[in-house]
Amino acid sequence: MKVLVTGANGFIGRNVIERLADQDIEFLTLDRAGPNMSVHHDLISPLDWWSPSGVDAVFHLAADSGVRSFNQSGFENNVQATENVLKWATANNVRMVVFGSSSSVYGNQMRMEETAVCTPLSPYAQSKFASERLINCWARSTNRVAVTLRIFNAIGRYQRKDMFPSRICDHLKKVSEGQPDELKVFGSRLRSWTHVGDVVNGFW
Length: 204
Hints:
This protein has about 200 residues and is α/β, with parallel strands linked by helices. Helix content is about 35%, strand content about 15%. The strands form 2 sheets. The protein has a 6-stranded parallel β-sheet, with helices on both faces. The protein has a two-stranded parallel sheet with strand order 7-8. Helix 1 links the parallel strand 1 and strand 2 (about 25-30). The longest helix is centred in the middle third of the chain and has 20 residues, at about 70-90. The radius of gyration is 18 Å and the shape is globular. The two termini are about 15 Å apart.
């Protein structure tokens, strides 16, 4: 089996490729940045120039993120990237696409279940939901397999330093070393977290 991982230099991607390497699965990596990628490429542009042999599945994790700073260009980038991945998968006879979506597609619902109605509010959430729909249409029209995982608040190794769990860890480290540090917290909404190892298990 051979897998292509897009967004391989990102938080989830780096954890996924470590699992693939541990399990001795052949894989290729694609990202617009980062060391040791099989291909450096921004998926806003078509990928039709690249035709490696024998790719069975794509783990599509490449995306612009950062909900607070996300804008219309990010929406267009994410949807265009997904469309280009699907065109490439069709041309290269890839049978399965596994997509890393987001729980943000549920909007502000407090009870989030897979059967809940999707009400994406932010441009980021809308880009993920539009990509889901593209992938589902691709699977039905080409008789191939699509799997979407809506990831909930992942934390763990390689996470961004501006994420709240990272800020807590940094705060506790400074306090334990006797350094003055103030941790500002805004809002009172409860939130659960998913360890990235469990996210990788889902992709696995």
